[in-house]
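Section handout, structural biology tutorial.
Before the tutorial, make sure you can parse a SMILES string by hand: atoms, branches in parentheses, ring closures as digits. In the record below the ligand is flavin-adenine dinucleotide, and the chain has 275 residues. In the tutorial you will relate the predicted structure tokens back to the input. Do not try to memorize them.
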Amino acid sequence: MNNLLLAQLTLELMPMATYTSLGRDENGIWEGLHIDRQIFNAQLLRKTMEQDVPILFNETVEEFIQDAERITGIKTKSGDLYATYIIDASGKKAIAGKKLNLHRKFFSPPLLCWTSISGGIVSYPFDPHVAYFIPGDDEWTWLAPQPPDQCAWTRLSMKGDKSLSPPAILKDYPIIGEVHADNMRWRMFQPVCREGIVLCGDAAGVLDPAAGQGIFNALWSGTMAAISVVSCIQQPEAEAFHLARYNQWYTEHFESKVKQLREYYIAQGLTGLTV
Ligand SMILES: Cc1cc2nc3c(=O)[nH]c(=O)nc-3n(C[C@H](O)[C@H](O)[C@H](O)COP(=O)(O)OP(=O)(O)OC[C@H]3O[C@@H](n4cnc5c(N)ncnc54)[C@H](O)[C@@H]3O)c2cc1C
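Predicted structure of the complex:
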């Protein structure tokens, strides 16, 4: 996905080109912000390098190094790396959760999600200036137009639909690049931290993209993870307290998002998508 719709824009498409906003506050209707992944990644790297942080590219975490109950480092092909604390922000790869065999808690049935971009759109069959959430029977489609002639789309189904086809409304236009598919079953590891390691973002828990919360959650939990690690290092005698506090904060935050998304689905008539 090249562009991410950060704050959700709006999104009900019943008859074409009518929509309702997902939210508003004293500043008006919430607007959408697209982040270009390449630009975002480049800026993030530049900022990190400015802080003289060493960066290793193309490394694979083979396993974690443990000293009794504490995680003390990682094994890679280039050698062992040790750290007082590790923050796992590996996204859906969820390296720590999988390698440390943490318990996975599920909140939905398996949900197949596939996404790509259609191009060559001479004349949009919908307003290209807004994004659309289109609920269907046990499935939904999300359209995020990218004028002048492209539209990013995301579809989700609980029926095991393997066609990975574009939305019907875009079927006459070529798909640009690859179609990425994944299981976006709502899930969270428990616990999301242990002595020596803290999980954040998608590495800790995943909701499907309809939540529109992934980037926000990654930034917020990343910040909270960093604060918790600093607290653990500064007050080693209170480490258990800081870890328990992070775990509780993450769990409550995630479960409240599950509740909101479930209510949103029910409001959209998508009751089959929830358990
Ligand atoms: C189709 C789709 C649409 C979405 N739309 C939205 C949206 O509109 N709004 C929204 O907020 N969220 C959206 N999301 C969710 C959002 O993309 C994620 O929740 C968010 O990117 C998670 O951030 P993260 O930093 O935890 O993980 P990621 O963004 O996945 O970053 C993890 C990074 O870790 C790197 N990595 C993995 N393993 C290693 C390793 N061994 N060494 C070094 N690096 C490694 C990966 O390459 C990657 O760069 C969408 C997701 C999908 C699939």
